Amino acid sequence: MAEPTTAVAVTGMAAVTAFGRGTGALCDAVFAGRTAFGPVTRFDVSGRRARSAATLDTPANLSEELAGVADEACRSAGLDAALRDSCPVLLATHADPALARSPDPARAAAGAAGAAAALAGRCGLGPAVRAYTTGCVAASTAVIDGALMIRSGRAERVLVAAGYLVDPDYFVAFDAGRALSPSGSVRSFSQDRDGMLLGDAFAAVLLESADVAERRGALQLGLVAGWGRAGDAFHVSQPRPDGAGMARAIGAALGRARLPADRVGYVNAHGTGTAQSDAAESAGLCRALGGQAQRVPVSSTKSSHGHTLEASALLELIITVLALRRGRLPVNAGFRHRDPDCALNLVLEPASTDADYALSVNAAFGGANTALVVRSGGHD
Amino acid sequence: MTGTAMTGTAMTGTAVSGTGLAEAAARAGLTVLAEARWPDDGVTEPEQLPYFVISSFSPLVAATARRCLSRWYGAAPVPPGEGARVALILASVRGDVTIARTIAQIVDDGERMPPLLFFQSVGNAVLGYIATLWGIGGPMLCTSPVTDPEEDALALAASVLADGDADTALVVRAEPACTADEQDQAHALLVRLPGLSLPRPHLPGPRLPGRGERPGNKSGQARR
User: Fold this and answer.
1) pTM for this one?
2) Could you give the CA distance from residue A309 to residue A316 in angstroms, rounded to a whole number?
3) Which residue does chain A place closest to B180, by CA atoms?
4) CB-CB: which of B137, B140, B178 is closest to A134?
5) pLDDT tens digits, residue range B107-163?
6) What b/e string do you get for A11-27 counting C-beta neighbours within 10 Å, with b at 16 or more?
7) Minimal Cβ distance to A109: which of B94, B113, B117
8) Do B9 and A118 touch (CB under 8 A)?
9) Do B9 and A110 touch (CB under 8 A)?
C-alpha cells in the first residue's frame, strides 16, 4: 500500500437535490429523516410498476446544473480564476440520454467524456481528465483517483463533480428489472423493503492537498483519510451474499487511514432498499467491522434523497462530511421492521454525534465496491 | 496531462489505436504481460454471452479480455490468491451506444422494455461477467476518457497499481461502431508495475501467442 505523503482535504462542496439547492437543504432533510419522494410528472410512468422518484420541483438541465454545482464548490473553496484554470476535473455521470437520440453520429459518439470536457470549459476549470461510468460507484471511484492525484503530487487540487437527472430511459429500464419500489417508499434495511427509487442529484467536491489548503488559508471541511476498492467476482448484477468484496474494500480503507474499526463513529451505507443488496451489505459490514458493526450508527440516506446513480457516492460523501462537521447523524428513513439479515445499529431518529471518523460505502453492478474513510475537519 | 478542452469527441478521436495502448503502457512505466485485440485472427464476431442481448459491445469486451487473460493465465480462473489482486479497467469514450439507443427507442415507442437491458445500461456489468468467470476481485473501473484514451487508461492503471489494491491490471480499451463504415474495436493489455515478482502461471496445453512473444520463448513474457 502506498505511503501517504499528504492528507487530502475537502475544501469546497455543493449539491442540488430534490430537497432544493445547497448542501444546507439536503442536510436539514436527512438529519430530520424527511423524504423527497413523490409521483413522477417529468415523463409518463403509466403502465410502470413504480411511479415515484425524488425529483426537483423546477425544470432542470444536466449541463447547467453540473456547471452550477462546480461553480459553487469552487466559490465556497475560495478558488480564484487562476486556481480554477489549473484544477483538473473528474466527472461521474453516464452519457446524456439525448446523445442516443441524436441523428449526428459524431454527437452520439461524444459519450460521457463530452460532458466532462464541456463542464471544464464552461466553468473555466483545468483539464477535464475523464468521466466515470462505473454506475453507483462512479463518484467514489473518482474521489479515490482524485485523492491519488493529490497524494502523488500530480495535482494540488481536483474537482470531482457528479450528476444524474431522473430520466425515462433509466426509469423504464430499472422498472423492467424490478429494481424500483412499487410502494413508493425506500425502506433500506427494513424487512419489508421492496426496492429503490431514483433521485435527481448534482454534486461537486473540491479535493485539495491539506498542506496547500493550509498555506492558502482555506477551510478544511473534512479529510478523505482512507479509501479502498474491491470486486465481488460473483455476478453481473447481484451482490456477493457474504459481502466479502465490500469487506475487503472497507478493510483497505481503514488500513490506509490507519484506523481501527472501533474508531468508526458513523457509516453512511449504500442501502439501496433492495432485498439482496441490503443483506449483502450488512454481511460485508459485519465481516469488516466485527462487533463494531452492531454498535456503530448506520444509515442509508438513499432512503431520503433516492438513488442518484453516478452521483450517489458524491452526495453521500458530502452528507458524511457535514454529519461529522455538524455533529448530527442522518436518519435511515422509511424503516419499519427489523430484518435479522440486516443486524445493524440503524439511526431511526434524529440524533447527535461526537464522532471524528465515518465510513461511506457504495456498491455497483458487476460487484464493484468502494469505501471512503472521512475524518472530521472540525465542528461548525 | 494536457489542458485541451473540447466540446465533443470527433469520430476519429475515439478510434482504438493499433499501437497506442502498448506505447502508453511503456510511457506509464508498466510491464506488459499479455496483449489481445479485436478484430483479430480473422474472427470478427465475438461469441454471445449469457445475460447480454442486442449489443455486440459487451461480447467484444469479454472476448478481448478472455484472449488477453488466457495468454498469461491459461484457462480461467486466475490462480487463487492472485485473482483478488487483479484490477479491471474498461476505457470507452462512447460506451455501449447500441444499448443506449435501444433503450431510447423502446421508451420513445412505448414498447415493453426487456428486463435484461436493466443491467446492460451500466458498463461495469460486463466487467462483472469477466470477474466472475476468471475469479477476479480487484478494483473495477469504467471510464470515458476525454483526451487521449490510451494514455489515460494506462496512466489510470499505473495509479491504481501504485495505490496497492491490485498487483496486476487488465486494461480494455473498446469502442463500438457508430456508423456503417466503422467496426467494433477493442484492445486489451495485462500490465504490472515493474519489479513485481509473482510466479508465472503454469499454462496447461496449447495457448494463443501474445503480441510481442517470440515462438519458443519459454518464459512467454512480453516486454518484461
Assistant:
1) 0.93
2) 11
3) A105
4) B140
5) 999 999 999 998 898 889 999 999 999 999 999 999 999 999 999 999 999 999 999
6) bbbbbbbbbbbbbeebb
7) B94
8) no
9) yes
